[in-house]
Amino acid sequence: MHERSLPASPNWYCSRCSDVSDRGVLAFGARSVIHLAEVSASGCTLLGELVGHKETVSGFSFCHHAGQSHMCVSGSGDGSVIFWDSDSRLSTRELSPHQSPVSAVHWSPVDRNLVVSADEKGVVVCHWYHTGDSVSFFPEPRTVFCLSCSPHTWNHVAVGYKDGMIVLIDVSRKGEVLHRLRGHDDEIHSLAWAPTASEESLYVRPEELTDREEKGCFLASGSKDQTVRIWSTAKGKGVMTLKLPYLKRRGSGVDPAVKERLWLSVHWPKGRPTQLVSSCFSGEMVMWDLTRSGKQKWSLFGSSSEGQNHSRIVFNMSSVCLQDDSELLISTSMDREVKCWDLASLECCWTLPTLGGFVYALTFSPVGAGCLALGVGDSMIRVWNTLSIQNQYDTRSFWQGIKSKVTALAWHPKKEGSLSFGTDDGKVGIYDVFSNKPPQISSSYHRKTVYTLAWGPPVPPMSFGAVESKPSYSLYSCAGEGVILQHDPCKLSGEASDIDKLIRDTNSIKHKLSPHTDLSWKPNGKVVAIGNEDGSIDVYQAPSLKLLCSIQQHHKIINTLRWHHDHSSQPELHYLLASGSSNAKVYVHNLRSIIESPADSPVVLTEPYRRLCGHTTKITGMAWSPHHDGRLVTVCYDGTAQVWDVQQEAAVCNYRGHVGPLLCVDWSPVDPDVVWTGGRDFTVQEWRLSKQEFTKPPKGKKMLELVEKMKVNPKKKKNKKAGGATPAEILTPSVNGERGRGGETAAAREELSEDEEADGSSTSSSVKSTVLLTGKCALLCSGDLVLVQTAELALHVELHLLSMKKRKPRSMLPLSTSMDHRSKEELLQDCITLATVTNSQGECCIPGQGEHIHLGLFSDRQALYRMFEAEEEGHVEAGHYDSVTYLRLWSGDLEGALRVATERGELSDHLLSIAPMAGYAVWCRTVEAYVKQLCLQEQYLKAASHLLSINKVYEAVQLLHSHKMYREAIALVKARLPADEPVLKELYSSWAVVLEKDGHLSSAAKCYLAAGASFDAAKVIAKKNDVSSLRTAASLARICGEAGLAQSLSLRCAKDLAVAQDWVGAQEVLGSQDSLLVHRLHVCVTELLTAMLAEAKLVNWSSVSGHPWASPGGRHSSIQDRIREVWQEEFGVSESSAAPGSIPALLQELKAVESPQPSTHLPLKQVLRLDVLDAVLSWLVEDDAELIKELWQAVAWLRDGHFSVSAELCRLLFPNGTSVCSRKYPKILRHTEEQAKAAANSLQAFVHYYLLYERWWELSSPSKAGAPSNSAVVNGGSSEPEVGVCPATQTCVNEKINFDASVLLSEDHAACQAIRRSVAEIQERLAAMVAQHSSGQQLDPDMKQADAERRPDEQESLMSLSTKMSEYHKKLAELPDTVKVEPLGGGGVCVCIIDR
Known about the structure:
Helix content is 29%, strand content 23%. The chain has 34 helices and 59 strands. It has a five-stranded mixed β-sheet with strand order 42-43-44-45-49, with helices on one face. A four-stranded antiparallel β-sheet has the order 1-57-56-55, with no helix packed on it. Strands 2-3-4-5 form a four-stranded antiparallel β-sheet, with no helix packed on it. A hairpin with a 4-residue loop joins strand 39 (474-479) and strand 40. The relative contact order is 0.03.
């Protein structure tokens, strides 16, 4: 169909959107189309397109199997997967297995029938081509970025995800995950398998060459984290990481304003297991040698000369092996170029430029033969040397200073290389294409898109002045706002002139000129034709721009104008002007007589010289052949280019190679058989007239009906009815073929932005197989392809366009407006009636009411008021009260308008802003009403702001407070009211309660502090009950003067820290307050005890922090001496301390401190008592009685639940027996009180009991040779300790007992314990009897058996048991209190050890 073409750019940010077949056919997805090209080392040839997807192609893969290499598969953003035959360019199967956009697709290199696809939701689908079956997997709930089937194992597929995870799955086991490869931190862009099925090529260490149970191959991955990783699929882990090198870009201009993300593509060439290709930061490509040592393991592609590499990031790479065993690599990039590389030399073989937008303009240079300029929607200009022999795609790109879609181009007629351009944002500039300088930009911008540029002779005021200062040519630009500006190419910085002023002055025109849409200068520069929005064409004579004639032929917007060239052999052809508009017809006018013999007044032409009919929708461009006389080519929205013989009014040929509407055309300046066209399909195509099989444009159904009607009644002009437009016009986003907004012109003038550009295929843009793919029915009739669109499709398109129409706002004057839609006769009679009323004294009617309501708009004010009253009644009936409000506002009844809006609850900011015009009282009432309305709408902030406008601050605060908007209410009070305002404290307190309830304790505390309730603030913070909160609460209470609360919170915090073994933290918390000295001493004693017990390995508590003085080294003989020394050194506490740290004061404080009761169920660290602390303090004040009692309590309280700890504590307190309390501070203990004596006896017995037990354990130990083996425990004994007690006691014990064991014998203590045991037995018996009586049940069988075994005199009743209980209590009361309070050391048990 075509000779050469520039295709659309490959899609960006797709992991596999291009591939090369084994036969050397390259395919890449560009928008929703797949382009095919045959590649070789010398160049490429475009073959055609695969059309069928509705959305962007996101994945593509060829089948690399013999006999099936022409088959391929693609995935799209609409979730579809299509199988193709690249030879016939038709789809063989279309599937929709995905609910989300397809992100990757791959045809298995091992199994010729397996295709795997994945979507953005993480669903992986396996398709079996030969059976049509498919199965879905969901290995990971992540977004899939890429996938690749193993070239060695058919069922292994690697999937790369957005979060950096790579998953290796087995599709034969329902998608079972074999390995999860973790190492990348960001998106996985590409995956590539090693070409060899082993993992030995990269192992260089002998230990890695051992036989492995599993066989695998290497997998390469490229990620956004700037690394390439090599993975072992057998081990499931990475073996190599390659960091991308930063390469300084050389040459190759790139727009610095375009910020691009990194895309890292990898490719493992065939037959090169140790070499890997990857892209780099800025479009460079590197070849990695995976066996090379050292830092630089890579070689740069195209390093021999500048400009070979891509200038932007590379997305896809694929390779193909040629018949001569050479391997080519094809790469696609963001720079819109497809490059071919020789992998042997790493040099670029050829480059295929592509286009990234609509081709809005193309034009050949009149000076440089074969130099074609392209204006493209990707904000770039391409200049293509079409006559180059070495490189058939020799193009240069220009982007500097553009930054918008290039919509118009024009070469200078004499100056070589000077190219003017216009853009979508109204910019006009001039490029010198033979230099690297940025373009010159005109300082005069258009307000809308520039659609036409033309070089012509200067006209006033630019033509005034000296000859040497005048430019030979001016640049004229026509844009969407309907203005034509004249620019001085030598002084673009100067202001451009609007030629409309010259036209009005020269032709004495007073009325407004129609917006201009196009202009064309006659080649000799004497006449210019200007097309207008209303379809007229005005022809002016230069330089004064005198109007010669006006052509009233078209009735729709003029899109293009072209004069015939001046080198024709027939002079009459020099005056032919061709015009195309949105009415699908081309008219040619011969203006020879008008130009050669101009009349005194402008001539109006209504009949054309030639009429060219055939297109079915708007004409977008045209060009006269420079090689023929009267040969014209036109392009249209129907997607075809038509060549006409104008003199014969005959169609020559029709080109249908494009997929969408065409926008521009030009004839080759060197070959009369070649035409170039560009369109909305992002392509430029070169085609020959002699090779076209069609003669006329395709005709739609509507066009056939129109032709039949014209044959029946050719002279009668039919009014266009609803639905009578051609299908192509229905598909065209225009209103009656005219510009929709402010003079927007031409076919390309309604284009969307680059990302929103649609395919725009009309009903007649189908060729060959494209007809089948667009879902239309084709009929072949008389050599022309007639497309019949189904009624359902036409209806669907029409309804869709109607829904897209902007809804017309409701009229404020509907009654009077409806009167304008009456019959023509009635409307004309209205003119007579109005003239009669206006010019006669007698009134024949009353304007503004009744049948003449609409005349109130054209009569006096009273008539207008009458019309308003009638309109108001109509609005009230229709429920349009907002319109009533505006009508009253217009009539000056502002108070009435506000009243209506208030009653209906339809007040607005606009009405409120004009309310002061009605007076202060009205304004205040309106504001209050609007506040109520806003509250109903839950717009409380806005309501409070309006209350402030009428100085109702308290009401505004109360409004915010009542709706729990405390933050805003507080800000308002602090900004507008005095600082001591009571409402502020109330707000803080209310907010604190809400915050405390919601769990925002810190914010609640701040509110309490602001309200002056520091006590509550500290309590709130302490509610969380963690260490940091308690510490903060204690500090806050101390700062605010709440001493009692601060002390309580500090104690709680210190207790938690002590339990957690954070001794330094506990001392810091307690040290912040001087009144807590006694508690600091308690923590000190506890830390020392804990350290000593940990040293003895009796506890395994891990300490968070500790003090140096608690370290194991440097211990004294007793713990009392160590405590006394640390107190004096660290806390300044001694027997000579003064108040408030005096010993008596500390003892007094200590009495108020509660000590925890010991229990076997509580952890030891939670029941550390104050006895040792109290004993040391009593020792310092020489209170011997209290010292003895506290030492007894310190030893005895742990005897039940913590036997070994109690034994170790005895050893620490009395390392040399009870006779010596301290060697460093010796003294004789004097105690005269009975209780103290009993405590001393019990203490002595306790210490001796532990010494006896230690002696017994040592003698019974099997490790001691010759030790006695027989020991007896007499009179019962204490429960045996747990294993491991003996190692804790390491005191050397002599062979003989060195103390009097009689202290362990006490008849009073034994009698006391016997009585207590008897009392306990009677209590158990009584409890059982009471329980039996209350439940009405029998005794327990065991108890019943015991009663039966008793003798009759032993069976007791409740009364006898009570009597015995009383007797035992009397005996217990007769015993001394010292016996009952201070038990003997072993619990009153006599223990003797008999040596054999």
